[in-house]
Amino acid sequence: MPELPEVEAARRAVQDNCVGKKILNCVVADDPKVIDGVSPSELQASVVGKTIVSARRKGKNMWLQLDSPPFPSFQFGMAGAIYIKGVAVTKYKRSAVNDEDQWPSKYSKFFIELDDGVELSFTDKRRFARVRLLKDPTSVPPISELGPDALLEPMTIEEFTESLHKKKTEIKPLLLDQSYISGIGNWVADEVLYQARIHPRQTASTLSDESCAALHKSIKEVIEKALEVGADSSQFPSNWIFHSREKKPGKAFVDGLLSCFVFKRKLSIFCYMDPITLSFMLKFPIIHLKEYIYL
């Protein structure tokens, strides 16, 4: 699923290549599951002739700010992606479509041509994304229900620590709760918890001040580092657990160490490198304990 780094990389590409340009043509897919609450013809008529003023984002949602409302808004879902013809835009790999043989792709849901010839397409091959036409995207769900953006509206360490100590839920589900912090999904949550050396099932309120500070730092550093490389996962640091997410249980080795505990819950893989963490982890009920290796 595209998360904050991928959506922000798409926003930046739109900001760099499309702002200040007029929309000459628009093609909207006849797909009422994705095109939400508006007909294709109404969406097309509402944007043609308008100028793109900026590209905006909150959490995993992006919208085009035009010179007058309403504005097209994109909820990326499981596989939404932005393509700009001739421009490299990083996509979450499960979102990628082949746009070389057919442009726009058969998965295109929203396509615009700008007055300088630039062409943009929002694609979704799994049909969990949503494209809406909104007068004020920030005033209505889903954006109005989001918590502070993890990049643009970070809590202070003091605010973050205080809020965590009030939460009686496990830390990973809390980070995934978009009403708490928006933009963090599975891979970012896995990474920041791993970098902070925090068990994903530890209750948030039991975290020490030091752990809260470590988590606050890792959220900032992981997101900023991902954006430094344009959300291109092949350029993520080699010691990130991201590179082991899809390896078979028992085969994920991180930080150059051969001692590793592998725990798989849904699509998440967590590696813990020391016996203290291992003994702590075993105190919890575990869903799908596959294998562990400690050498």
Quick structural gist:
Helices cover 25% and strands 21% of the residues.
Task: Explain the overall architecture.
It comes from Stylosanthes scabra. Belongs to the FPG family. With 295 residues, this protein is an alpha+beta fold. 25% of the residues lie in helices and 21% in strands. The chain is built from seven helices and eleven strands. It has helices at residues 4-18, 40-47, 157-164, 171-176, 186-196, 209-228, 275-281, and strands spanning 23-28, 52-58, 61-66, 71-75, 80-84, 108-114, 119-124, 130-134, 260-265, 268-272, 291-293. The chain has a four-stranded antiparallel β-sheet with strand order 1-6-7-5, with helices on one face. A hairpin with a 2-residue loop joins β2 and β3. α5 (186-196) crosses α6 (209-228). The longest helix is centred in the last third of the chain and has 20 residues, at 209-228.
Secondary structure layout plus pairing:
Blueprint (H helix, E strand, L loop, with lengths): L3 H15 L4 E6 L11 H8 L4 E7 L2 E6 L4 E5 L4 E5 L23 E7 L4 E6 L5 E5 L22 H8 L6 H6 L9 H11 L12 H20 L31 E6 L2 E5 L2 H7 L9 E3 L2
Antiparallel strand pairs: 1-6, 2-3, 3-4, 4-8, 5-7, 6-7, 9-10, 9-11
Helix pairs in contact: 1-6, 3-6, 5-6
InterPro entries: Fpg-like_C, FPG_cat, FPG_Glyclase, FPG_N, H2TH_FPG, Ribosomal_uS13-like_H2TH
Protein name: Formamidopyrimidine-DNA glycosylase, variant 2
Family: Belongs to the FPG family.
